Inverse folding.
């Protein structure tokens, strides 16, 4: 079942973060979709999973990428969307330092432009080095940068924290990075 959980999780990332149209889904303005509708559309697209299995995927996702609403009738991705959604997170004061892990091949561009959100809604930051390393490892040989988050916040940049504790901001200018 563990392999199936990983497969379903990857497919959920696709349809809840990037391409809901793949299975005919429409996310609401906050990224939510009816849980029952998701299950039905998954089944129609040969991704058979029941509610118990879906809950298992959500609970056991190593990055806690998905969340149910309070009564479990809706589900969404917690962050990382490339489609337009408003996750409704309120701005919060970040810790003094956050971290960003990426591949060394992106370093020259980052030193020139800072961290940009690219095709996502926001830049993703981690509260600890280990998490940043895990994220960066997905992209190649990893490099971890320190982000002067509190200093940024004091300069007027907004920070948000997702349900799965990923820190989000629109950009990180070079002067707030330590390489």
């Amino acid at each position: 079942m563990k392999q199936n959980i990983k497969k379903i999780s990857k497919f959920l990332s696709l349809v809840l973060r990037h391409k809901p149209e793949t299975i005919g889904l429409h996310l609401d303005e906050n990224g939510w979709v009816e849980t029952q509708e998701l299950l039905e559309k998954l089944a129609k697209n040969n991704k058979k999973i029941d509610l118990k299995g879906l809950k298992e995927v959500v609970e056991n996702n190593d990055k806690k990428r998905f969340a149910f609403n309070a009564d479990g009738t809706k589900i969404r991705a917690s962050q990382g969307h490339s489609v337009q959604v408003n996750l409704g997170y309120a701005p919060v004061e970040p810790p003094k330092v956050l971290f960003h892990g990426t591949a060394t091949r992106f370093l020259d561009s980052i030193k020139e432009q800072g961290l940009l959100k690219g095709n996502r809604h926001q830049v993703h930051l981690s509260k600890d080095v280990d998490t940043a390393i895990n994220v960066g490892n997905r992209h190649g040989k990893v490099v971890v940068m320190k982000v002067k988050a509190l200093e940024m916040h004091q300069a007027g940049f907004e920070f948000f924290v997702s349900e799965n504790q990923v820190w989000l901001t629109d950009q990180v200018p070079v002067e707030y990075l330590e390489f």
Q: What stands out?
A: The chain has two domains: 2-77, 98-178. The CA atoms of residues 79 and 162 lie 7 Å apart. The chain has six helices and eleven strands. The helical segments are 2-18, 35-44, 51-60, 107-113, 129-137, 149-154.
